[in-house]
Amino acid sequence: MKVRIFLFGICMFALSSSKCLAQAKPNMPQSIISTSASIRTYNDDKTLKALSKGELVELYIERMKVIIRILPKIGLATKPGVTMTDLGIPDTADNKKALDLEKEATNTYLDITVDYLRKMLPFCDKGQLVNAILFYEQTLKSLRDLEAQ
User: Fold this and answer.
1) Cβ of 34: how many Cβ atoms within 10 Å?
2) Strand (E) positions, 19-70?
């Protein structure tokens, strides 16, 4: 019984600590584009054709997520990590709320879309999937070039 009370106390302490940390987060500047919105490698036609359809589905989804997180915001920024403060946007409660709502809406959209794509993409033509990934990667390269200008 004492062990249960002790474990319950530790759990409550951990939960209250995580809540305190979560409450401190809004005071920190938030990135307009998620820091996870990038890819490390680009592929060519030959490399993609050698992959299994399951691997292609995951690559397609990964690239789609990056594009969805970046493309609507290219008027503000083209790379992850840029904050409202960096752009001279006032760090007001309304602006923070707008950014939070946009992130929440994007995450909801991505959750639903990824679920849909994981169910449907295994039925598509492998060549079409390869072409779509190449298109997404070309789009991401173009965004990288825009960033360099």
Assistant:
1) 18
2) none
Interval 36-78: pLDDT, tens: 788 889 999 999 999 999 999 999 999 999 999 999 998 898 8
pTM to 2 decimal places? 0.77
Q: Which two structure tokens, joined as six digits, stand for 73?
A: 């915001």
Q: Give which of 104, 99, 44, 36 is closest to 65, Cα–Cα.
A: 36
Nearest residue to 31 (alpha-carbon basis) of 93, 94, 78: 78
Rounded CA-CA distance 48/62 in Å is: 14
DSSP string, 63-126: HHHHHHHHGGGTTT-SSTT-BHHHHT----HHHHHHHHHHHHHHHHHHHHHHHHHHHHGGGS-H
